[in-house]
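Renewal narrative, Specific Aim 1. Our central claim is that a sequence can be written position by position from structural information alone. The example that follows is taken directly from our test logs and has not been curated for this report. It begins with the structure tokens describing the chain, in the order in which they were read.
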């Protein structure tokens, strides 16, 4: 399901943009989509939030169709798609014209919604040409999203580490690092505006935006309805902060809760660079996490990742139990 054409230009809120209520009214249906209701395959997920999975990082081999078969066999009806699932780079320079519609069609025939698509590149890379190449590829991806049936692209702000965007660098806290990242994000958001999609960036402790406070700062600087948040609480706890879990979770949702359109479901067993455990296999307070999502009227997909195919049934049962409670 795409964002309606008049969504960003009608019914202004108090600052001239859409109101929070308007966005929340549409965010859930956009993220979850209507594909399942239209599919001949009966949907298997009554939960709210809707449970999904990052397709490429769990079902890592096989054709697009085979991976989608595995999702359906697991009882899931929502995915975050990656172009890698069709044998392309995650951020390709070009996408075959028929591929986005094929992705949508193959997913829909199995009762699966494409809730979002992976669009991460290092927006803080010290090489400006690297950032420019990422923006060019983001445009290619954004323009394919309507044919895929999704309106959300998951992104991260990146790091000054030139070799891995998932490794913290001491220069991440320098003013020039924020300047370069924010400029790149502003261009990325304009690409999203032109394509009528929404970028959802994740506060991630190895990245320049490594906290909910910095996420709020970035949202306020860019000030666009085309920039929202992916929340993954397992990535919010810096070294020494795990004992403050309640405080950090509550603060994160107080700061960015109204802007969350995608949510991740994994876990951690220590703080620092630690959010790599399957959901239910660590110490994250999932009761509080789910309660905060619902308190903030989150209706988008809750996406499993950081797990193997064999762990999907147990993690799915764990999340269903938390949602039922």
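The sequence written for that structure reads:
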């Amino acid at each position: 399901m795409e964002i309606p054409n008049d969504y960003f230009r009608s019914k202004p809120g108090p600052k001239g943009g859409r109101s929070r209520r308007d966005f929340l009214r549409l965010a859930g249906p956009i993220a979850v989509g209507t594909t399942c209701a239209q599919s001949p395959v009966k949907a298997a997920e009554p939960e709210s939030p809707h449970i999904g999975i990052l397709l490429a990082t769990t079902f890592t081999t096989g054709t697009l169709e085979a991976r989608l078969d595995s999702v359906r066999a697991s009882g899931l009806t929502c995915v975050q798609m990656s172009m890698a699932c069709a044998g392309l780079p995650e951020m390709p320079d070009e996408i075959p014209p028929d591929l986005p519609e094929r992705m949508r069609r193959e997913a829909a025939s199995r009762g699966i919604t494409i809730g979002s698509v992976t669009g991460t590149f290092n927006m803080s890379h010290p090489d400006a040409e690297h950032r420019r190449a990422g923006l060019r590829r983001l445009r290619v991806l954004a323009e394919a999203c309507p044919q895929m049936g999704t309106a959300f692209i998951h992104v991260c702000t990146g790091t000054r580490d030139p070799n891995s965007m998932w490794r913290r660098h001491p220069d991440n806290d320098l003013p020039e690092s924020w300047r370069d990242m924010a400029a790149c994000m502003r261009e990325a958001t304009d690409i999203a505006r032109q394509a009528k999609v929404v970028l959802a960036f994740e506060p991630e402790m190895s990245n320049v935006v490594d906290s909910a406070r910095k996420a709020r700062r970035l949202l306020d600087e860019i000030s666009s309805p085309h920039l929202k948040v992916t929340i993954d609480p397992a990535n919010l706890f810096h070294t020494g902060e795990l004992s403050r879990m309640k405080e950090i979770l509550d603060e994160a949702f107080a700061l960015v809760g109204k802007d969350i359109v995608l949510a991740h479901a994994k876990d951690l067993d220590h703080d620092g660079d630690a959010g790599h455990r399957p959901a239910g296999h660590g110490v994250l307070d999932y009761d509080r996490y789910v309660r905060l999502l619902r308190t903030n009227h989150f209706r988008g997909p809750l996406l499993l990742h950081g797990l193997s195919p064999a762990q999907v049934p147990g993690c799915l049962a764990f999340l269903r139990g938390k949602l039922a409670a």
